[in-house]
Specification:
The chain is an alpha/beta fold and 518 residues long. The protein is 39% helix and 19% strand. The chain has 17 helices and 20 strands. The strands form 5 sheets. A 7-stranded mixed sheet has the order 14-15-16-13-12-17-18, sandwiched between helices. The protein has a 6-stranded mixed sheet with strand order 9-8-7-10-11-19, with helices on both faces. Helix 8 links the parallel strand 8 and strand 9. The longest helix has 22 residues. The radius of gyration is 24 Å and the shape is globular. The N and C termini lie far apart (55 Å). 54% of the residues are buried. The structure holds nicotinamide-adenine-dinucleotide (NAD). Nicotinamide-adenine-dinucleotide binds next to helix 9 and helix 10.
Length: 518
Amino acid sequence: MSSTTFPTGSTTSGAATARAVLAAHFPQGLGSFVDGRVVAGRGETVTLSSAATSEQVTDYADAGREGADAVLASSVRGAEVWAATDPFERAAILREVARTVAAHTEELAALESATTGKPIRDTRGEAAKVAEMFGYYAGWADKLLGHTIPVPGNWHTYTERVPWGVVLAVTPWNAPLFTGGWNSAAPLAAGNAVVVKPSEFTPAATLRLAQLAHGAGLPDGVFNVATGLGSTVGAALTGDPRVGKVSFIGSVGTGRRVAVAAAAAGIPTVLELGGKSANIVFADADLDRAADGAVSAVFSGAGQSCVAGSRLLVERAVHDEFVARVAERAARLRLGDPLDPATEIGPIITEPQFTTVTSLIEAGLESGARRATAAALPESVTGSALAAGRWVVPTVLDGVGTANPLETTEVFGPVVGADAFDTEAEAVARANGTGFGLAGAVWTQDVARAHHVARAVRAGTFWINSYKTIHVAVPFGGFGDSGHGRSSGPGVLDEYTQTKAVWTPTRAAGSPFPSLSY
Ligand code: NAD
């Protein structure tokens, strides 16, 4: 059996803290969640180590193809039970899931922080958002309406919303708890069973969410988790005809591979992929507020965020002053122990991503960008056990022109590329100059210009004088390379149901059978 080493987070108290948190919830170790139990895999060993300190934490066995098969068999049974459950009962159970998650916010946040290295102040907010997701979609579970449709002749014709059956949600490592809730609450409300395939790097919080949801009343097999590698478990699940629909959150390359594999089996997909979002600042903006916004846009989550405002386009008249303000704020951000509530920036969650971020900074500098922030890590990291972890100092690179790789390549780390622009048209062209179309923002006090720019930038989400607010009630998703389909808002219930049309004659004798050769 070969071995793969992956980092997860922990604290200055090191792997011992992460191990203690894991042992409290998973005394038998990590595995898949099937029919209400954690089941050990039998595949390749996956080793998890700390992002904060690089110490080894634990390992688990990949579920493999055999494990994926068992998960799906359970989910098919769960889907039948759940679809047959009265929608009012489904709503009541999902409300109970919301209440249970809300009551375990602190515990879920600690687990997520200990196993990813994300700051606890962020994971507390994310856990609360997951409770909100279940509460919001619980409200829709008993309100999935059809239509009665007038047609020529004597017919009663109506539509019904029908669940797909089993929805597979493949999620990334940057926000395992949040994305586990984001891509399961809506399909569950629509009457589907859900299998979440979390990233092999970060399965713990998703497993705990499934345990809590099961404890709150979801029947066996309705919310399963398949734990392991994308190349084994992910690939086995994606093309399996027992899956009705696939939602995928992750990188563009993997997303496309998943979409091709699903399509080959006739399975539709929702893809939420990466981004290279532009944050456009005009000279008339409230520059203090815009600078605060620009810092949180790219540095929260240490930049490991799909909507990160990783390009900062500033009108030339205020460019130098504005970049200095952003750099000064970036230098004040507090890096440190992920479980310390004062910590604002955590480490890079995975080893490969750490290598990607550090090499993209080098590539950006080699292509002519200038550092506006110091390169050295602060004493809070270098002077502690964190020194061996995967830390990247919040980095502002200025003079990132259109030929610089940082203009179009997603970094997914705490790095923003800044540049000056002269005209609104130039700023919009730069914003639209990548294949991505996930998000963006404009900062200006000119209302007409704000809306003009909002309309002109090709992005699924756009903020005016703000950044990064998202809510489960509002549609979220990308254009172009950032994906297709939406994963929130009421419209997502259409993603997770199919429409059935039912015809019945109201006067049998008078209703001719049409001769359509359709
Ligand atoms: P990734 O594409 O490497 O992996 C995502 C998931 O796909 C993981 O669970 C992985 O195991 C699985 N996977 C890998 N190969 C597979 C296969 N052949 N079949 C099925 N599943 C497979 O992405 P990542 O590195 O985990 O996450 C980072 C990326 O996610 C970034 O590009 C980021 O922008 C994107 N992201 C997007 C959003 C969004 O909402 N648009 C949100 C978060 C992250």
